[in-house]
Design a protein that fits this description.
Number of strands of chain A: 10
Strand order of the largest sheet of chain A: 2-1-3-10-4
CATH class of the largest domain in chain A: Alpha Beta
Oligomer: heterodimer
CATH topology of the largest domain in chain A: D-Maltodextrin-Binding Protein, domain 2
Distance between the termini of chain B: 44 Å
Largest sheet of chain A: 5 strands, mixed
CATH architecture of the largest domain in chain A: 3-Layer(aba) Sandwich
CATH superfamily of chain B: MetI-like
Distance between the termini of chain A: 84 Å
Number of strands of chain B: 0
Structural class of chain A: alpha/beta
Strand content of chain B: under 5%
CATH superfamily of the largest domain in chain A: Periplasmic binding protein-like II
Number of helices of chain B: 12
Shape of chain A: globular
Order of helices and strands of chain B: HHHHHHHHHHHH
Helix content of chain B: over 70%
Shape of chain B: globular
CATH class of chain B: Mainly Alpha
Number of domains of chain A: 3
Amino acid sequence: MSHRSRLLTRPALITCRVVVIAAVIGAGVAIAASRTLAAAPGADASAPLVAAASDLKFALDEILERFRADTGIAARIAYGSSGIFARQVMRGAPYELFLSADEQFVHELHAQGLTRGTGELYAIGRLALFAPTGSPLEPDPRMDDLARRVAAGQLGRFAIANPEHAPYGRAAEQALRVRGLWPELRPRLVLGENVAQAAQFASGGDTEGGLIAYSLALSPELRRRGTFALIPDSMHAPLRQRMVLLQGATPAAERLYEYLRSPASREILARYGFLLPAE
Amino acid sequence: MDWTAFGLSLRLGVATVVILLPLAFLLARWLAYGRFRGRGFVEALVALPLILPPTVIGFYLLTAFGQQSPLGQFFQSLLGRPLAFSFEGLVLASVLVNLPFAVQPMQNALAAIPGNLRDAARCCGLAPLSVVRRIELPLALPGIATAVVLTFAHTLGEFGVVLMVGGSIPGETRTIAISIYDRVQAFDDRSAGVMALVLLVLSLVALGITNTLARRMARHD
């Protein structure tokens, strides 16, 4: 076909063929690879699917590790903002167990008939003032140094979780309002999508600090990056954390729910600074 | 390195290319050869995902996937579960978002074929389908290859839309781009770094291939 060779040079044709062949081979490899990779632990579609507030990040990882050792069940876990998870469940997200940082979201889902019962209070969260190594901010429980720096107009950026949908963001706003710092501090705020992102902002060194979950501040990862002080729980509404099984929860999810109520799990939660509700 | 997420991204890329390519070829052909009013408008529609914020696309898709919408109800009855926060939902979103990446290179390649060549083929008695098979497809091959590479690479890198309509469900909607975001929030900079590097290299290779093809194509014009 002479018209063909005139329009498309030979090397061009060869390149095209190579690309098309490579694409076909690549697709085959990709499909085969994804099959193999899908068999990796944690990807098993029958593993219970858990949505958890991001203040649980380190504590729950530890609990799930033990749960797997004890039962052989590897849960699939997503950490994020409780408010965003609640919205996703309302839109039909297939989570089986929801560990909220604010029980209000559990009650809202229950009112819509999306849960099995009203679940159970599993922990009460606390707030911590965190300052990364090298920050001029000195964390103290009453946030006196923070107030001083704000009054002097010296404070740089300050991180909290987004108060619009993250429970720890709401608690941080309350504490800052109680201390009378909110109006002046507001323009200095950087908002994390959830409290784990706020902790990442607060510890990265680009901010002078932030109000984050005490449970995250106690983790080895954050201890390494700075200092912190526990905020008195009188300064904000209690972070009553409730968990609930959602419609469609499998027996494996039910077992995990029971496991989370066990002394072993409660001991880990207590170690990460959570207050435990009385039996 | 989150291998589950990487595997999921590969699967999403392949599914997107396989579904989108035939549709996009028909659309590209229509735009390249069709004479009709409002072509500029259709072209603008196709190009829209290039400039629309992913949150806008994500918002509309979430609304369209909802159980209140006809589309949402249709898929609910088909799959037995909602389209939002599922792999199927991601594929659909990905097909829409990648429309310009698949259509535009093929449309350009098809438009570059001289009209008299296609006329001649038809005068010589080639059936319309044979014209597509023996003239258009071979000559538009660089454009098609570019479309495949760009669509695949762009699917691997898509973030905003996936975050909004997919959430971050392991093995279902947590793609490699989302996994990087999660790893950073989990203070796991090492895994995030490895995965970021993988995406960087893949994207670089993809762009290298497309640029080579574009140059080859320009040479024969």
